[in-house]
Amino acid sequence: MKKIVAVLFSLVAFAFAGENVNIPINKKDAKEIVKLIRNTYAWVENSRAEYIYIGVPNKENTKYIGIDWNEYAKNEKLLKQSGYFSNKFIASYENLLKYIDNRVKKGLYKYEWEVGMMPILD
């Protein structure tokens, strides 16, 4: 369950990053949103993708040294096939991973990205 919450929170955060969202919602919309969230939960439960921990570990398997872009390509395909995510969302996800990859490779983070942990966005 924690994995599902983390994934959904991350995906929603990516989707609305930098946007001012102020949309009125009626009862019909609310029902559709609940249905979509439930379907997304089911999709995440059955998905074989790993959206957060897609780093390339070092030889000692203690820290990540970049993003596994082959794993990202699999994730991107699954995200598109699901029909739940817009192209803008998927592009935002890719841009975030590029940002993380660049900072990890250049050693720009205060902390190392430990295997099994989410990257710290400082």
Brief digest:
It is built from 4 helices and 2 strands; from the N terminus they run ααββαα.
Short descriptors:
122 residues; mainly alpha; two-stranded antiparallel sheet; 6% strand; elongated
Write a structural description.
With 122 residues, the protein is mainly alpha-helical. It has one domain. Helices cover 57% and strands 6% of the residues. It has helices at 2-16, 27-46, 69-82, 87-106; strands at residues 55-57, 64-67. It has a two-stranded antiparallel ribbon. Helix 1 packs across helix 4 (87-106). 13% of the residues are buried. The model has no long low-confidence stretch (mean pLDDT 80).
Radius of gyration: 16 Å
Instruction: Count helical runs.
Output: 4
Query: How far apart are the termini?
Result: 27 Å
Percent helix among the residues?
A: 55-70%
Structural class: mainly alpha
Total individual domains: 1
Number of strands: 2
**Overall average residue pLDDT:** 80
Within the largest sheet, what's the order of strands? 1-2
Oligomer: single chain
List the topology elements.
Elements: H1 2-16, H2 27-46, E1 55-57, E2 64-67, H3 69-82, H4 87-106
Antiparallel strand pairs: 1-2
